[in-house]
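Agenda item 2: 6-O-phosphono-alpha-D-fructofuranose complex prediction
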Amino acid sequence: MHRLITIERHIQMQQREFPHATGTFTAMLQDMALAAKLIARETTRAGLGNILGAADSDNPFGERQQKLDLFADEVIASLNSEAGRVCAMVSEERSGLIDVPPTYGTGKYVLLYDPLDGSSNIDVNVSIGTIFSIHRKYTRGENGTLDDVLQEGMRLLAAGYVIYGSSTMMVYTTGSGVYGFTLDPVIGEFILSHPNIRIPDKPRYYSVNHANARRWPEGVQHFVNELQGGQHGALQLRYIGSMVSDFHRNLLQGGIFMYPPDTHRPEGKIRLMVEAQALAFIAEQAGGYASDGLRDILTIRPHNLQQRVPFFVGNRELVQRAEALIQQHDHEWINAYQTYCQNQRG
Ligand code: P6P
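Presented output:
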């Protein structure tokens, strides 16, 4: 019989690499798997319950929240708040730090998450995802602070995502490779199905919303023309408007996901703290690379919970080619983006 490794067993096996581990970090990862099962139970029957459709509220980014967004957000926050694990939590669906009751004391970790990315696709049954990452508290005070949250991505302890698609998968890394688990709904367990994921050397796809093409900086235009012109091999376009799904395809089969800046938004759309850092950490652990067009996403010093970044992630040579063309052609955008970054410092 094929050696069956559940995600819980795998996480415990990873814990052995940390001799002083107390099990708290392990418990957080295991509860992310539990949250994924609870959310998957609702996404797979979203059309049946009254959970479909928009709530009557917006998230901090001014986007209409879907009922399933709020459900997923509450599941993740509640699993982690009464356990003495975290000193701070940040969700895309809420502004500021999420209050962590002092019941069990202040934990030593920071949890950042986008409970349901791509949720505008829920009503049309397109796959969606959860993105999460974990930093370690480093300030001396009793309680978690914004400084504990606004750390560079290179300091992450763990990152992962769940993709609610034709099957439900959870992919995670703790800095020792990337591992994928597929949910067996009959037994309710995530089973190791993709050990040690590495992004293939030969890219097959590129993912970008061409509707914005006229507004891209010139260097991005040149890059996408190269992708279409075959200089990097005959890449196919795949874009479904759900970043976790587009990222997952490029991670497994080779390629690049992009949400470039444009004349309307020099900072792009993707959120640094709850989306880009996690996917950049995973991509790097799988042999890939992620950039904002100028530098490694993991080196960016965050200044604001709502900070956005242009996002290029996938095969290292493709992302670095995008950087080179942007450096060569896009000085006006570079100045506009650097002004945005300065303004984030407040
Ligand atoms: P557009 C979803 O809101 C999201 O953040 C990503 O999941 C997705 O890749 C992107 O936005 C889609 O944005 O502007 O192409 O519809």
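Discussion summary: The CA atoms of residues 110 and 149 lie 6 Å apart.
Owner for follow-up: CH.
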